[in-house]
Design a protein that fits this description.
Chain lengths: 372, 130
């Protein structure tokens, strides 16, 4: 157990502590899992606006030439030659096709119009990915990783009222950006990167600002959210929100033991006319009909089937749960998991062993929730 | 029953023991402190009437959005009644954990475990210190 003193702190740590944040160790960071009720924080994001401190996510900037072509050798999705302004979700894999992380690759322009590349990676994988990328940079290349995670902060503002709220105080209206694009912007004279991205299934945006100026931005955003019936939202609600939206979470639906071909994330895998680390293993896995694949499960009753619960048809174990909870918006107990391909048709009836008791469940198509 | 009159286990269950005919009957619930720590309760699994419970062993579970927690029996005996209204009305635990929020009643097979429980003052001290 890491002591509290050793945990990394975001620029908003003191604010969280002063606002009933229940601070937990999350990937080496002291982060607020909730402030009050997880359900209330979940609903405020679905109905109004939730504000999340996601500064623990890794923010890696790149220096050098031909960065996009280099990154393209490491990502399952094509990121080379992407227009300035665009952001792409991708997986990164090792030689055997195991998923090292899921990432966002940004190709944006700074305030002076100069293009740059950056990447947002999971907090739990940041050091691993920095080491991995450094190990893959060709010896003659001038590319270098500039990890600015500790000198910047990141705020996610999510919900049906998020973009209009940000538009009222920012130089850019997020609604004018296409999904998965970003730009330089200012809010209260603070320079930042604004992107129309998120991890909740709601519309909204994310801000990246320098740590020294971050608190002023956070305070302004929180104040505006409160007027709309929204507010600070912890990691627990972020988890229930992303689960309803069927977004995978590294360490649960994604890991080094899982091949991208199993994940039902086809949009993030471009195998044609390109090469990258892990490509051959992904191609082989695509043609392997025996591998378990990711599905959604809906349970009868309110009991939650959480990570590691085994999934059965009669006495045959056919899979395992990777995430599960009672879902506040869909008002059902839902899970994601990996099961044998023969049982993946929606409507297939299965049973899940929850601490020795079987719960009836059925396979459902993903996502569990999509905004209207 | 006021919380000051109850006994408490380290695992945050409360106990009230009363004599009925020749038997000792323990009513068991969970403390307001436990309910506050759990938050967002969605489900509770109760034992069947007639089930045997053992002190320090789980007799049921309570599930929140975030996690599943076991309910530990603070006493030894046989379940004679379970509050079947509770699982569908878990908000009672938030508003009235010590009366309407009782969980099970147990006919004690012995009173050995009772002596290990804390009084309210000791329990409050434990919660404050942690």
């Amino acid at each position: 157990m890491t002591s509290v003193e050793q945990l990394l702190k975001t620029p908003f740590h003191q604010w969280h502590s002063e606002h009933h944040g229940r601070m937990v160790d999350f990937a080496g960071w002291s982060m607020p899992v909730q402030y009050q009720s997880i359900m209330d924080e979940h609903h405020q994001t679905r109905n109004s606006v939730g504000v999340f401190d996601v500064s623990h996510m890794g923010r890696l900037f790149f220096k050098g030439t031909a960065i996009d072509q280099f990154l393209d050798t490491l990502t399952t999705r094509r990121v080379a030659g992407v227009d300035v302004g665009r952001i792409r979700y991708s997986l990164m894999t090792n030689e055997s096709g195991g998923i090292l992380d899921d990432v966002l690759v940004y190709h944006l322009a700074d305030a002076s119009g100069a293009p740059f590349h950056m990447m947002v990676v999971n907090a739990s994988n940041r050091e691993k990915i920095v080491t991995w990328i450094n190990s893959q940079i060709p010896s003659q290349s001038d590319i270098a990783v500039d990890d600015r995670t500790l000198s910047t902060a990141m705020i996610a503002i999510q919900g049906p009222k998020a973009n209009a709220m940000v538009a009222s105080m920012c130089s850019v209206n997020p609604a004018d950006l296409k999904y998965y694009t970003g730009t330089a912007a200012t809010l209260s004279d603070v320079s930042m990167i604004l992107s129309r991205t998120g991890y909740t299934g709601e519309d909204g945006c994310e801000l990246i600002v320098d740590s020294e100026q971050a608190q002023a931005v956070w305070d302004k955003v929180i104040q505006a959210a409160a007027v709309l019936g929204g507010g600070a939202t912890g990691l627990a609600a972020r988890d229930t929100l992303r689960l309803e939206a069927a977004m995978p979470l590294y360490g649960h639906e994604l890991g080094e033991e899982i091949n991208p071909a199993q994940t039902d994330l086809q949009f993030a895998i471009n195998l044609k006319d390109r090469n990258f680390v892990g490509r051959d293993a992904i191609l082989a896995a695509k043609n392997d009909a025996s591998l378990p694949v990711r599905v959604g499960l809906e349970l009868e009753g309110k009991r939650a089937a959480r990570e590691d619960c085994e999934i059965f048809v009669d006495e045959n174990k056919i899979g395992v749960v990777t995430s599960g909870t009672f879902a506040p918006t869909v008002q059902k107990s839902i899970s994601m998991g990996y099961i044998e391909p023969a049982f993946t048709a929606p409507g297939t009836l299965v049973e899940i062993d929850i601490r020795g008791k079987r719960a009836a469940a059925k396979i459902v198509s993903l996502p569990f929730y999509s905004r209207s | 029953m006021s919380p000051e009159q109850l006994l408490y286990a380290e695992s945050h269950e409360w106990v009230h023991v009363e004599e009925k005919d020749a038997d000792k009957i323990a009513t068991i619930g969970i403390s307001a402190h436990a309910v506050e720590a759990l938050t967002d309760l969605v489900y509770m699994d109760l034992p069947a009437v007639g089930a045997t419970v053992t002190s320090g062993e789980p007799f049921g579970e309570v599930e929140s959005v975030k996690a599943t927690s076991e309910l530990y029996s603070p006493v030894d005996g046989e379940v004679i009644e379970a509050n079947t209204e509770l699982p569908d009305n878990l908000e009672i635990l938030g508003t009235d954990p010590y009366i309407a929020g009782w969980i099970i009643k147990v006919k004690l097979s012995n009173v050995d475990a009772i002596g290990k429980l804390m009084d309210h003052t000791a329990y409050e001290k434990m919660c404050c210190d942690s």
